[in-house]
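hey so u asked for the seq, here:
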Amino acid sequence: MADLRVKHGSNKKQSKKQRKQRNNECPSIIRALPNELLVEILGKVASTSMFDLCKVKLSCKELLHVAEDDHVYHHASMEKFAMVPLPWFTGERESSFLKRCKESGNSEIQYREGMVQYFSSLRVRTGLENLKKAALEGHGEAKYVYAMLLMCCENEDERKEGFDLFRDLKRKMASSCGIGRCRKRVRSFIRSMWVNNPVVRNRRLSLCCSSMCDSSERMQRVARRRWSWLVEDEDDDDCVGISCEYCDGDYELSLFCKMFEV
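ran it, structure tokens below
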């Protein structure tokens, strides 16, 4: 009788071990896929949902290994992390993850660090460089901020470069409505940190230099309607465009600089 109990217990342990092994095994179709393709797929998953990525990592050892590729960390979403993480509220695992994302060139990390460095910690040159890197990676908000900062410069070439970036961003976002949503996210970030380096526009410098332009008066009229930066939904009707693209750039720059007025 004792031998039967021992045998039954041994079989039970063995069946648990077998189930565990089966759970850790990847389906044959996963093993058949090239590693480069799996890395690309997990990069897409990481860019949309860290929760889904964690579930994928738990599914089998092969995918857990693939998820450690730099490409995955490069595209990882920062949606669930604080815009300005405070060291005393950041756990060891979270700090390690953010550090790995930074080392992998994650554009959202570069954007957030650039914003804090430029506007808060007064490391202006380093901050501008991080914003530029993120902008060149295609990060929308970084490209918007970098373009606005260049458009504030007194150097004509830098202003032109900033305007070209802004025009390209607006074209890719399909409409001024997209720019409005982008501006709203930037404004939300600026409000979340202590600003020590506000942007002040030199009003003598204008992108539109034409005395014949009929958009200037209209731009001022639109600006008077939406001038209060305290109005949360000021971007909701931003789809009304301005015919002159240079006046449109001047108007957008005015809205950007208005974010820093208290």
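The two ends are 84 Å apart (CA to CA). The chain is about 65% helix and 0% strand.
lmk if thats what u needed
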